[in-house]
Amino acid sequence: MFVIIRNYKFSTTVAFFYFLLIISLSIPRIFSGGWRHIIEPMDMRILDNFPIQHEAVLVLRSTHAMLSNEITDEYRRNFSTDEYRAVLPIFTAALFTLVTSNYFWGSAFSDMFWWWLGALAVYALSRRLGHPSASAIIAGTLVTSSPLAVAQIGAGHLHAASSLALPIPMLIAWDALLPARSRTASITLIAFSILISSLLYTYQWVMIPWVIYVACIHKSRRILIIRATLACLLYYVLSLTVQGFFSAGGLTLHANQNDPILVLQSRLGVDIGALKDVTTWPLRFFNLIIISFYVTILNLFSAYSPFIFFWSLLGLFTRNVTHILLYVFSIMFSVAQGAITDLPWVIMSGFPIIYISAGSAISTLGANISQHLQPAQLSQGGITKVITHSIPTLVLLLVMYCLYVTNIDLFGDYSFVRSWFSMGYKPH
User: Fold this and answer.
1) Which 8-state DSSP code applies to residue 66?
2) 365/38 Cα distance (integer angstroms)
């Protein structure tokens, strides 16, 4: 374990910068009720004198069970997949609750903790992809201001923690796929990364295809595909083992989510059984793909904000082939998810690579201008020198505007809030 941790060294300055930025974006929303309070005020409840969203009751009862070691019969009967898939954020919420003696601040600090780790993981993943430090810092900054976090902070249901934690298992799996690593260590680490992704959110359905895809695009694909496949099988065994421990404690999982088959049926506009008619299902399936692709792309522009998504597209103009292939995967996977639901926090599951691409584009812009405008080409007082020295300011202004467009609610403009929640979300 210490060998694993030793591989992830981060700049203290960068980590502290992300920490301060997360605090500054969280506090105003915590005390005002956040985005949920704006979009759905009648759905809010009061906990420790703070407004929270009603769904937080699932987190609260699990947090209380961990702290009090009391597992009631009612809790055993109703332990749901919504709680199982957030076991790790709930555990940290329980730790913070123990320290603060306050359930609300326990969940809020848990959100901010995983949010911070997610930003650091994106920074590290960007560096793993060969991007310079400036590009990685910008990518992590964009993650800290992502609506995935700022939309959910203060709601009490730990969605911010769950959503922003995805880059962590991605980073672990990326390093585990190094061909130089021993076969046993590689398979174990990959399986471990998928397992923890399932305990952060239902991200195992993102991680499994992502790991296999990364193995396929690697030059040592034959070895890595075998390792990735074995790791997926090991994950399945580990998952059953973990669920077995829960069952031994009297906690049996109960589904608490929409049946994917029923959701898909509503998308197709036909009963799944009717698809046996080969004269109708090909056309319906084709229409589903075309419509999903069109709608999801539009939703992605809106979910990330058109400005940031535009810069992520510009990030494709790079010589980094791995970066391009991972970006294509992120978009295609988002489209596949768009066939099931339009919920923004679901279709944004490819956010680590999207933000890395945007950070790369903004950083590369400044680097290219510097390269083509050398002060030596003109006199010391020439316009070129003035422009060259203005480049860092230009990059900083671009980053600040990226922060602004997803956080304009702090300035009293709630248009982005309403637009973000309007995608697939129906207030009660």
Assistant:
1) H
2) 37
Closest CA to 26 of 104, 86, 83, 85: 104
- Residue 379 per-residue DSSP state: -
User: Is the separation of the CB atoms in 64 and 58 below 8 Å?
Assistant: no
Q: Give the span between the Cα atoms of 191 and 189, in whole angstroms.
A: 5
Tokens of 1: 């374990």
Q: Which residues partner with 27 through β-bridges?
A: none
Q: Any idea what DSSP says for residue 54? A: T
Q: How confident is the model at residue 2 (pLDDT cuts 50, 70, 90)?
A: very low
| Residue-range domain boundaries for the chain | 2-165+258-421
- Whether 86 and 162 have beta carbons less than 8 Å apart is answered as yes
Residues 238/189, Cβ–Cβ less than 8 Å: no
DSSP 72-122: -HHHHHH-BHHHHTTHHHHHHHHHHHHHHT-HHHHHHHHHHHHHHHHHHHH
Q: How confident is the model over 10-62, as pLDDT tens digits?
A: 678 899 999 999 999 999 888 876 766 666 666 666 666 677 776 777 777 77
Write down the mean pLDDT value for the chain.
80
What residues have CB less than 8 Å from 143, skipping those under 6 apart? 118, 119, 122, 149, 164, 167, 351, 352, 355
Which distant-in-sequence residues (6+ apart) come within 8 Å of 275 by Cβ? 268, 281, 284
Residue type, 407: N
Structure tokens at 386: 């003035």
Question: How many C-beta neighbours within 10 Å does residue 164 have?
Answer: 33
pTM score, whole prediction: 0.86
- CA 106-111-117 angle, to 5 degrees, is 125
Q: Which of 93, 203, 200 is nearest to 156 (CA)?
A: 93
Write out the two tokens for 5: 């941790």
52: β partners = 45
Q: What single letter denotes the amino acid at residue 204?
A: Q
What is the torsion angle, in degrees rounded to the nearest 10, for the CA atoms of residue 243, residue 248, residue 249 and residue 255?
40
Per-residue exposure over 120-141, b if at least 16 CB sit within 10 Å of its own CB, e if not: bbbbbbbbbbebeebbbbbbbb
Q: How far apart are the first and last CA of the chain?
A: 45
Q: Is there a contact between 88 and 196 (Cβ–Cβ < 8 Å)?
A: yes
